[in-house]
């Protein structure tokens, strides 16, 4: 009897979703849903109830209104490249996939802004405006497939965010469907300095827990007049780390300042885009400066000087655009390249003050030894955003658990160094408990209370971002029980 009731409710859900978007835009068979059990964080899986593909804000609003009234949980999903499990169902949610809302709606070169739907792929924006000499600055390494909606939700970063800032610095306006189906416009069409609370700041990086973004106005930038790219090879990882701090403290802000250690270099050289880096390196830096032509040469010379003072083995400037592109392909495909040297890998994402690089990299080395797992480091060194890649073999019993624990210890090392547990990949499902490394119960409760204003029934993306209730929340719940 009970089972029958559930099946009927399931049918009603599917039927209503089909009425809103058409039968071809709803997946509900188990074999179709399997692809949506996880995102780029593959160590946790959950089965959704259905996946629905709206094409307009109105459809998103109708879907959300229905789910809200029926008390059915739901999740927004872009390309599913998230690395912290933000788009993974806990079980039974309806996934609202935004990938069919993929139009570039408007480009306004005069005011240097563009309006996109959330499923518009990041790199496509730059490609669409390149012929006019413009580009979109935030460049996550996944930019060839991740969506701008997903970038807003995660406040995505990228190699060139050191100088230009992360996603939040490039968002001028949002249209958002709230978890009850209402549609709101925030700083519509990029009007600067709107009075009232900074809702755009609040929504950006909220990991899909406060609303579903259905339209985004972004800042676009004019291509820099000139750029130059440097590769610096080191025989000692501490020298490379000190060079990073020295470059910034010399007053230079490179467009990008990336680092790879010995294991990461082994991986990228064994994969699809090898550069032919010399053998036996302990670290390399990939540094890019851009701006008006006349200042570039001086900055490059200063960078070369710093590297020489830090005992660089070899340092070279890309001869042409082709060589530069090869170096960047080698770096930007770095995560996937680990597949060439390990059956599995777990990407971590912590932040530290730049000056602590040598000591935290040493701590990560100790964690690698303690857990008997290789850890490669490939990261945005300029902004202290580490990506320890923990290499493991899921076929060996216990190794997955060891990798997860080693990852958590790397985040603890970042937190202990005065940093944070995420620089750009978000907390999602993966790092909920690690939130306790940097926040007290009271601080976590303050944040969940803000979320609850937008998402009072916690139907939108439940079970993400925050650890299970802290002490304060538990006390409050007990008090509530006593007083009601
Ligand atoms: C190889 C690789 C390299 C990467 N490199 C980087 C990098 O350099 N920098 C970086 O920051 N990240 C990087 N990532 C992580 C990932 O690509 C980013 O987090 C990206 O922003 C996710 O976009 P997506 O479209 O795939 O979103 P999804 O993975 O589909 O979703 C991510 C989160 O956003 C929410 N969401 C998605 N769309 C919306 C919407 N329209 N409204 C509200 N919430 C929404 C989801 O609910 C989920 O919580 C990398 C990932 C991979 C696989």
UniProtKB/TrEMBL annotation:
InterPro entries attached to this UniProt entry: FAD-bd_oxidored_4_C (IPR004113), FAD-bd_PCMH (IPR016166), FAD-bd_PCMH-like_sf (IPR036318), FAD-bd_PCMH_sub2 (IPR016169), FAD-linked_Oxase-like_C (IPR016164), FAD-linked_OxidoTrans_Type4 (IPR051914), Oxid_FAD_bind_N (IPR006094), Vanillyl_alc_oxidase_C-sub2 (IPR016171)
Record lineage: Bacteria, Bacillati, Bacillota, Bacilli, Bacillales
Cofactor(s) needed: FAD
Listed PANTHER family: GLYCOLATE OXIDASE SUBUNIT GLCD (PTHR42934)
Protein name from the UniProt record: FAD-linked oxidase C-terminal domain-containing protein
Residue span(s) of domain FAD-binding PCMH-type: 44-223
Keywords, ordered alphabetically: FAD, Flavoprotein, Oxidoreductase
Record flagged with keyword Oxidoreductase: yes
Pfam families per the UniProt record, alphabetical: FAD-oxidase_C (PF02913), FAD_binding_4 (PF01565)
């Amino acid at each position: 009897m009970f089972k029958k009731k559930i099946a009927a409710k399931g049918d009603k859900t599917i039927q209503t979703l089909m009425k809103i978007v058409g039968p071809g835009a709803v997946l509900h068979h188990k074999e179709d849903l399997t692809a949506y059990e996880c995102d780029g964080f593959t160590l946790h899986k959950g089965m959704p109830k259905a996946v629905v593909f709206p094409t307009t804000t109105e459809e998103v609003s109708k879907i959300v209104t229905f789910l809200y009234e029926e008390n059915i949980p739901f999740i927004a999903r872009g390309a599913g490249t998230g690395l912290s499990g933000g788009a993974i169902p806990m079980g039974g949610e309806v996934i609202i996939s935004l990938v069919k809302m993929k139009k570039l709606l408007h480009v306004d070169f005069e005011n240097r802004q563009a309006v996109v739907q959330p499923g518009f792929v990041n790199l496509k924006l730059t490609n669409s405006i390149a012929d006019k000499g413009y580009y979109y600055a935030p460049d996550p390494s996944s930019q060839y497939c991740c969506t701008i909606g997903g970038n807003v939700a995660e406040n995505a970063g990228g190699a060139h965010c050191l100088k230009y800032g992360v996603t939040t610095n490039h968002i001028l306006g949002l249209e958002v469907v709230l978890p009850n189906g209402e549609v709101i416009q925030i700083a519509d069409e990029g009007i600067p300095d709107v009075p009232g609370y900074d809702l755009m700041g609040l929504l950006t990086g909220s990991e899909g827990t406060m609303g579903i973004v259905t339209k985004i106005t972004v800042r676009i930038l004019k291509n820099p007049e000139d750029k130059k790219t440097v590769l610096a090879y080191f025989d000692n990882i501490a020298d490379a780390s000190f060079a990073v701090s020295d470059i910034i403290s010399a007053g230079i802000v490179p467009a990008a300042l990336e680092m790879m250690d010995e294991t990461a270099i082994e991986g990228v050289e064994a994969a699809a885009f090898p550069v032919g880096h010399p053998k036996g390196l302990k670290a390399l830096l990939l540094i890019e400066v851009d701006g008006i032509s006349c200042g570039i040469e001086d900055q490059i010379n200063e960078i070369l000087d710093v590297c020489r003072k830090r005992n660089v083995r070899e340092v070279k400037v890309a001869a042409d655009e082709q060589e530069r592109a090869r170096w960047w392909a080698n770096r930007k495909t770095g995560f996937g390249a680990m597949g060439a040297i390990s059956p599995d890998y777990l990407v971590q994402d912590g932040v530290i003050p730049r000056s602590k690089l040598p000591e935290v990299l040493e701590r990560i080395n100790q964690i690698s030894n303690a857990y008997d797992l290789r850890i490669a480091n490939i990261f945005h060194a300029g902004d202290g955003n580490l990506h320890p890649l923990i290499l493991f073999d899921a076929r060996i019993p216990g190794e997955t658990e060891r990798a997860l624990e080693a990852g958590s210890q790397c985040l603890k090392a970042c937190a202990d160094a005065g940093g944070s547990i995420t620089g750009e990949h978000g907390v999602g499902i993966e790092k909920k408990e690690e939130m306790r490394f940097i926040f007290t119960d009271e601080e976590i409760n303050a944040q969940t209370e803000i979320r609850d204003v937008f998402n009072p029934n916690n139907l939108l993306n439940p079970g993400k971002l925050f650890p299970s209730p802290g002490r304060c929340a538990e006390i409050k719940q007990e008090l509530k029980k006593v007083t009601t």
